[in-house]
Amino acid sequence: GENVEQHPSTLSVQEGDSAVIKCTYSDSASNYFPWYKQELGKGPQLIIDIRSNVGEKKDQRIAVTLNKTAKHFSLHITETQPEDSAVYFCAASPPKDNFNKFYFGSGTKLNVKP
Amino acid sequence: NAGVTQTPKFQVLKTGQSMTLQCAQDMNHEYMSWYRQDPGMGLRLIHYSVGAGITDQGEVPNGYNVSRSTTEDFPLRLLSAAPSQTSVYFCASSPNRGPYEQYFGPGTRLTVT
Fold first, then answer.
1. Among A96, A99, B12, B60, which residue's beta carbon has the most beta carbons within 10 A?
2. B residues 46-85 near A, CB within 8 Å?
3. What is the DSSP string of B41-85?
């Protein structure tokens, strides 16, 4: 099955700096790569996603890049703010029959220092 | 819309007890899933359903049962709780066909002593 690795496990940045989180996946059939943000005591919430036919996607301060050849994708957060502090998960989704299963990375705890 | 709701929020069980974690969604989503979240391991898929009456196993199904009698509800049953099942459990739903965004519930924190 799919194997997703995520780095780093913790990341501490100064407010206003950029943060980058990287993930690799193993199944070349994966065609959907979402990123989730999880605040303390809550369920994960989608912040951005990218499909395999696109190399980059941006949404304000957040961007995701995908390199299908190397099987890795990254989350970029610019001008970080204290409210960006949370745990971030990447996921990869290979199609299986009529359902896309999601395989998650182990998470990155981002701390933005004011 | 309430989205995805889960009950209870917290639960403590003794080894060998059984219980059901409830999950409901009001978005008319076909797909529903159960995950467990353990420190340093991300979210792992336990069971999933692609519609009423259809369920299948995920990565870590042992010790858990599911059923899907309606589109809205997808309960997760622990048959005989073990300390290894201490975890935070999340239910998620998404529209049919896809891939699409998964909407997660707030989670149930389960402790088995």
1. A99
2. 48, 50, 56, 58-59
3. S-EEEEEEEEETTEEEE-S--TTEEE--SSSSB--EEESS--GGG
